[in-house]
Amino acid sequence: MEGEKVSVEIPRELYEKARKWVENTPDFSSVEALVEFLLQEVLSEEASEQVYSPEEEEEIKERLRSLGYL
Prior knowledge:
By secondary structure, this protein is an all-alpha fold.
């Protein structure tokens, strides 16, 4: 998503967990890219009420666990 950028503050501990996760995965180039992806996923899911397959739900849960959310 292109456009003007803004800053968002998160706890340092959460940022460091995300940074370490990003360093160990080829999926995202930065913490900012991860946060943007997660926000887009949550907001688009909310708008469309998308239903995930059991496999997709498990993959999402695993990603959230690795970030310390679950």
